[in-house]
Amino acid sequence: MVLRLPTSWRIAGLAVALCGLILPAFATEVPGSLGKQAPILSQRPMDVYVATGAADACGPGCSEWIAVDGRFDPGAGKRFRDFLNASPRRRTLPVFFHSPGGVLASAIEIALALRENRMTVGVARTIQPGCTVLRVAGGNCDMLVKSGNDVPSQFSFDGAQCHSACVYALIGGVTRRIAPGVRVGIHSPKVDEQAWKQFADRHPGVRRLTSEERSQSLWRFVMALGIDPDLVDAASKVSHNSIHILSREEIVRYGIESTDRFETRWMLRGAPDGSANLIKAVTSGDDHATAIAQLACSDLFGYRLTLFRALPKDQFALPPPAQLMAGDAKISLLPGVAKSIAYWTAAARPDEMQKLAAVPQIDIALVYARGPETAVGIKMSTAGLGAALTELQNHCSQRKLNASAGKPPAD
């Protein structure tokens, strides 16, 4: 049995999978049928700088923030990481985006940097007096934001937007503030053939993944961040020549705005190799961490149950076993550590899992180290679990029949 870490924790593979994939920077006005008319956004490469404003400019007690403005260009991810690493203070500031979109791989790298540093994010415009969004490259305003110094600015939600690739960077924040009136837009990606050719020239022999494989990678990425992956499916239905502005209801439903607790449904998802996993994500607790429960076929035991959750910062010791309880049922999960991720795993029989599905809630108790100060309690609804287990069992049975007949796994 191969342990499959959520995709967001395997960034090297994800970068290859999404190479050449872009979410076009949306520069024209939003069609009237999709919302209010949106002002033109700057297409200049992304700028990142510390902005300073009046007392409470960016919220109660907040007078300085990190502004991320412009298009997500190919080097944006590295620039953002370098910017954060240049000063520990920067990793404590909230980040506010105002962007039309751009290269998806850059947005994902920024999302991972935000999640690793457990940062607060939002959507807002950062304005310098006397400057416009269409500032001239090399001009005084452009040089000001590229100076590396703190930039005196004004903060505004009015006209603030985060579209296409920007959305995938935004969801990397642990705390996500989406103010009423700001626009968050999605649409389907397209392949930048020139970017793919450049990558292939630098990496001879690399295999170009199918659109389905890239979609699977993106689906798992957002799931690992605790976002409902229906967001990816919804975006895929919107032409890359158009855009859909998310309603407040959609922002809440997909989990884009963080709350004290967010839980996805139980979802059966197939992989290109023919395997399938039943997956659920729950984001809760003071640290807003995401736990992922994953159930997969196992030839020996029926299912392999695995729970993933990020380790607290600066803690790498092997955690104690976890306990899963539902009604009278109880399952002990043995621990492991992979990089900064803790996981707990156990064999589970089909009848055992059906008993769990018969009660309203599963309670999971885990600790990261010996001591009550690191104890975490996770509650998972079992709504929909019974039907999802039936689907998974049918898939597992078919795989066993194919294997006994010498057939390759079905896609």
Give the tags.
single chain; 411 residues; alpha+beta; 2-enoyl-CoA Hydratase, Chain A, domain 1; Immunoglobulin-like; six-stranded mixed sheet; 11 helices; globular
Structural commentary:
This protein has two domains: about 5-255, 2-enoyl-CoA Hydratase, Chain A, domain 1 (Alpha-Beta Complex), CATH 3.90.226; about 260-405, Immunoglobulin-like (Sandwich), CATH 2.60.40. The chain contains eleven helices and 24 strands. The chain has helices spanning about 10-15, 75-85, 105-115, 140-145, 165-170, 195-200, 210-225, 230-235, 250-255, 350-355, 385-405; strands at about 20-25, 45-50, 65-70, 95-100, 100-105, 120-125, 125, 150, 155, 160-165, 175, 185, 190, 245, 260-265, 265-270, 275-285, 290-300, 300-310, 320-325, 330-340, 340-350, 360-365, 375-380. The strands form five sheets. Strands 15, 16, 17, 18, 19, 20, 21, 22, 23 and 24 form a ten-stranded antiparallel beta sheet that branches. Strands 8-2-3-4-6-11 form a six-stranded mixed beta sheet. It has a three-stranded antiparallel beta sheet with strand order 5-1-13. The longest helix has 20 residues, at about 385-405. The two termini are about 20 Å apart.
